[in-house]
Amino acid sequence: MSVDASVRLPGMELKNPVMTASGTFGYGLEFARYGDLRSLGGIVAKGLSLKPRAGNPMPRIAETPCGMLNAIGLQNCGVEVFLRDKLPRLPYDETPIIANLYACDADEFAELAGVLSAAEGVAALEVNISCPNVKAGGIAFGQDPAMAGKLTEAVKKRAGDKPVWVKLSPNVTDIVAIARAAVLGGADALTCINTLTGMSVDIRTRKPRLANVIGGLSGPAIKPVALRCVWQVCRAVSAPVIAVGGISCAEDVLEFILVGAHAVQIGTANFMRPDMAFRIAERLPALMEELGIENLEEYRCSIQV
Question: What pTM value is reported for the model?
Answer without folding.
Answer: 0.96
